Every structure is written in C-alpha cells, then in structure tokens.
Amino acid sequence: MVEGIKKPTITIGLSPAISVSIVLEALSMLRQTSQLSFDLVEAADSVEVSKMIREGSIDFGILRDVIPFTNLESE
Hints:
Blueprint: E1 9-14, H1 20-32, E2 37-42, H2 46-55, E3 60-62
C-alpha cells in the first residue's frame, strides 16, 4: 500500500450481548485477505445499535433480535 493513502474503514456497532472476542477473531482473518480496516463501537443495547444504523454513524451492526426491528433489513 502506498504510504499516506488511508485504508477503507468499516465501522461496526455491537450490542453488549455479542462476544467481542469472536468478532475480533473474524475481523482479524478478514484483514489478512483485504485492504480494509475496522472500527468497533459497543453500544448500550441492540436498540441503540439500530439507532446508530439509522443515523448513519455506523456502517452496520451486529445485534440480538430480541425485539422486532421493522425498519431494518437483515440477512
């Protein structure tokens, strides 16, 4: 990579119920095969993560589906 060029960064929101160690391990493997960088943001709960997605402050979120989020797309 050329010095001074910033890697694309994906911001991921997590609810406290998600195991950060598993996410870090998966992202570590992904970084080995891509030019991506990741920022993790832990929110207070899944509702806050969904709010962050709607506001555009994170690129995507990993959360528990304990209440229906009718305005979010899930895959």
